Amino acid sequence: MDPGMNQLLKWSIENSDTAPSDPTSTTDPRAVRPSDRHLNAEAINALFGGPSDADLMRESMAAIVSPEITLENKMVAFDNFEQLIENVDNANNMEPLGLWTPLLDLFGNEEAELRRYATWCAGTAVQNNVKGQERLLAMGAISKLIDLAVEDPSEPVRRKAIYALSSGVRNYQPGLDEAVRALPKVVVPKGGIDAGNMSAVDQIMEKLREDSARKSA
Questions:
Q1: How far apart are CA 43 and CA 2, in angstroms?
Q2: Which site in 34, 99, 139, 153 is 20 to 30 Å from 127, CA atoms measured?
Q3: Cα–Cα distance measured from residue 60 to residue 186, given in angstroms and rounded to the nearest whole number
Q4: Would you tell me how many other CB atoms lie within 10 Å of the CB of residue 6?
């Protein structure tokens, strides 16, 4: 059952006017109900037919890639999309909704702000999320993020690409192994690197940030 509908059913049961099962009870069931129990947005949408998070994610991406939408409005749509995928369930819903491909395609967009937001959203989607990290690796995005982190002419894009790369490899060994193969050798320490070693991962990312800052100086 949809989580929103499940909560709606639970809420309706808890707030029904059904009398208590004990016929001798003198307690008014309504008097002991929590007064601060509320439905979340998903449940309200399920009740009144409002758009689901999945609908909002699709609509945001449609606006982002539409040639008819201004850059300013694309940024608004991207901001909405990023907030939606902060929820790990929504982030994991990107694959069945077919949203990973258009997001990663934006890595190569000529507009720097779209590249920046695309890398930002990729980082948000995979942060502390193994399913997202697996998808990022499967779609060949690790090497693309490294290219952006090292070569992109825009410093804000490089910074967000490093953030996304860091989120994509932490505690995920296959992603880190792929990154080590693609990163400049001067950035990678000698010997193997454990993806669970936060200090070692931090050192790699810090070297990338320092290199990015030098390019902007």
A1: 9
A2: 153
A3: 39
A4: 13
For 94-105, how does the pLDDT look when each residue is reduced to its tens digit (9 = 90+)? 999 999 999 999
CA-CA distances (angstroms) from residue 121 to 80, 91, 198? Answer: 10, 10, 22
For residues 33 and 14, the answer to whether their CB atoms sit within 8 Å is yes
Can you tell me which residue has the tokens 């990290």?
A: 133
In the numeric block, the tokens 């490093």 are attached to 162
pLDDT digits (tens, 9 = 90+) for 34-59: 444 555 555 555 555 679 999 999 99
C-alpha span between 146 and 165 (Å, rounded): 7
Question: If you search the block for the tokens 């994509």, which residue do you land on?
Answer: 168
The residue behind tokens 């609509």 is 59
Separation CA 57–CA 96 (nearest Å):
12
Report how far residue 41's alpha carbon sits from residue 1's, in angstroms, rounded to the nearest whole number: 16
Q: Provide the residue count of the chain.
A: 217
pTM for the structure as a whole: 0.78
CB under 8 Å to 183, separation ≥6 — which residues? Answer: 146, 204
Residue 13 — very low, low, confident or very high, per pLDDT cuts 50/70/90?
Answer: low
